[in-house]
Specification:
The complex is a heterodimer of chains A (141) and B (90). Chain A is of the alpha+beta class. Chain A has a single domain (38-139), classed as Nonspecific Lipid-transfer Protein, Chain A (2-Layer Sandwich), CATH 3.30.1050. Chain A is 33% helix and 23% strand. Chain A has helices at residues 9-18, 41-52, 101-108, 114-119, 129-139; strands at residues 59-67, 70-78, 83-86, 95-100, 123-127. In chain A, a hairpin with a 4-residue loop joins strand 2 and strand 3. Chain A starts with 8 loop residues before the first helix and ends with a helix. The relative contact order of chain A is 0.20. Chain B is of the alpha+beta class and 90 residues long. Chain B is 21% helix and 38% strand. Chain B contains 1 helix and 5 strands; from the N terminus they run βββαββ. Chain B has a 5-stranded antiparallel beta sheet with strand order 3-2-1-4-5. In chain B, strand 1 (3-13) and strand 2 (17-23) form a beta hairpin. The longest helix of chain B is centred in the middle third of the chain and has 19 residues, at 50-68. The two termini of chain B are 18 Å apart. Classes of the chains: A alpha+beta (141), B alpha+beta (90). The interface between A and B is medium-sized, with 29 and 29 residues.
Chain lengths: 141, 90
Amino acid sequence: MEGRQPPGARAEHTHRFEADPILSDFVRPFPDTLKGKRSDLAASFKQIAEAFGKARRASAIQFTIQDGRSTRRWCLTTTQEGSNVSESATKNPDLEILTDAETWAEIASGEVAPLTAFGQGRVRVRGDIELARVLAKRMRR
Amino acid sequence: MPQMTGTVNCLRISETDAFTQIRDAAGNTETFVLWWYPGTVGGIPRTLNSFTRVLHSMWVSLLREALAGPLTIRITHPMHSSEVLNVQLG
């Protein structure tokens, strides 16, 4: 969104979020999990499961992706033994991230920061924000 | 358009961005964006007119009332977006 911006305005805005105890985890873009294969959504979720690894507590994170006219869902299941992902829906996820395929490709490839996509109204986040923070931290490992 | 009905968990307001988190009767929470104009600290976006700012102010009033109550509030938003389209109290 364009505006009359004084010099350094964007930097000041980003700085404010980086100092925020909750939002700071979502300010910077993630590393590229798609490795140039923008249409390979499944590969990006597989890589996220590997990056997540073992969890302190069991949880289910659902990614609901609008891909053209169809809605695809991946469920990341985290346990103390490790994490798995499958293209399936779960009934009561602890965290659900809803977006479209293009936006997910931009987030997963590191082109856009998750907070920016959320602020622009391109992503919905339902459920446990603390779990979303853990996910964001693990995706940077 | 999808709607979420519940109580206000929190309301976060700044010049450039504002968020609210709603908790429904089942305990599910979702965070919504009231406005988002990054990079405009100290400036006013050309696309932001006085009507929009008054609308934002009315949304904040309703959410504040709901938070203080606590009262049930209803948020309307697009299917795949956290952007608030409508705030209803009562």
